[in-house]
Write a structure and sequence with these properties.
Blueprint (H helix, E strand, L loop, with lengths): L4 E6 L6 H14 L2 E5 L11 E3 L1 H7 L2 E6 L1 H10 L6 E6 L14 H9 L4 E12 L2 E5 L2 E6 L6 E7 L2 E8 L1 E5 L7 H4 L12 E6 L3 E2 L4 E3 L5 E5 L6 E5 L2 E6 L4 E15 L2 H15 L5 H6 L3 H11 L5
Parallel strand pairs: 1-2, 1-4, 2-3, 4-5, 5-18
Antiparallel strand pairs: 6-7, 6-18, 8-11, 8-16, 9-10, 9-15, 10-13, 11-12, 12-14, 15-18, 16-17
């Protein structure tokens, strides 16, 4: 078997040096090849090859995302035209996609290289906004800009108008994205095994006020009404452009657009269930920590101390 070729996707601002060091040492012992986006060239050791982002998927067998859920979503978007397994290493705070903690990374890489993992398929939304295409693995949102008015749009499905919205934001989500913006807006939790699209208004004031659940085979159009204020178009939380009255956003569903590496799917589901229950508690993370036994608090504090330099 040829040595594995891994693409590394780094969190844009968090320090990933420790995790990179672990991966580089593991790769050197196994003659594996490592690649990174050329924009991250200055953050990676010299043994890691830099490539244009558009070329990474075709050159790599799998990806390692180092960060939180946002970094994972970015890695999935990089591979959408040539889906490859993505292993998530946790540097974030409350991730639902990322599974591996840094101390467990060498064993996880061994399993990835041996193909001893489960691949969890993820759908995406393909967005057409004024002729430009974008991809979202969590959600697409039309969001109001403070001081300019509200989102005023009509929902059309397969060419038939369903109704209109007047709200702070209008969120179209995948099953994966049902735990993100859609959930915060009051949308339902959707099983990752389901194949549906959820449209949820945030702070609705008129028109449709509940979530609409649609088939993945239906085409969706969000049409800004005449006289509507300009709104921001967000893809997985990133603003990609602004649109105004009578402009249209088209959304369609694409199955199996990305693959997330799972080492223990059942344990991961159980941990996510716990994380979701914590989201509904009116306590800050540091307040929750104070409820833990003193010995466990000390262990957590030791783990979070920065390594000596």
């Amino acid at each position: 078997m040829d040595p594995i070729r891994l693409g590394l996707v780094l969190h844009p601002s968090r320090d990933a040096a420790g995790v990179l060091g672990t991966i580089v040492a593991w790769a050197a012992a196994r003659d594996a090849r490592l690649y990174v986006r050329d924009t991250d060239r200055h953050r990676a050791p010299s043994t890691v090859t830099a490539l244009p982002a558009a070329d990474l998927a075709s050159c790599c067998d799998a990806f390692v995302s180092i960060g939180g859920d946002g970094t994972m979503l970015g890695a999935l978007r990089l591979t959408v035209d040539d889906p490859k397994p993505v292993l998530g290493v946790h540097l974030g705070r409350l991730g639902f996609l990322v599974e591996v903690e840094p101390p467990d990374l060498p064993a996880a890489l061994d399993r990835l290289a041996a193909r001893d993992v489960t691949l969890e398929p993820h759908s995406c939304l393909v967005l057409d906004v004024c002729g430009a295409e974008a991809v979202a693995f969590n959600d697409v949102a039309l969001a109001r800009q403070p001081g300019t008015g509200f989102v005023s749009a009509v929902l059309a499905v397969d060419g038939q108008r369903y109704g209109h919205y007047r709200c702070d934001a209008l969120v179209v989500s995948t099953p994966t994205g049902s735990t993100a913006y859609s959930y915060a807006a009051g949308g339902p939790l959707v099983s990752p095994a389901a194949q549906v699209v959820v449209v949820t208004p945030s702070a609705p004031m008129a028109g449709i006020s509940r979530s609409v659940v649609l088939s993945p085979d239906e085409t969706i159009r969000l049409e800004l009404r005449p006289g509507a204020a300009r709104v921001a178009v967000e893809v997985d939380g990133r603003v990609i452009r602004h649109i105004g009255a009578e402009e249209v956003v088209g959304v369609r569903y694409r199955r199996d657009a990305g693959f997330v590496v799972r080492l223990d799917p059942r344990r991961h589901r159980e941990r996510n269930q716990l994380k979701l229950s914590l989201l509904d508690l009116p306590l800050l993370p540091e307040q929750l920590r104070e409820l833990l036994p003193e010995q466990l608090r000390e262990q957590l504090n030791r783990r979070e101390l920065p390594p000596p330099r």
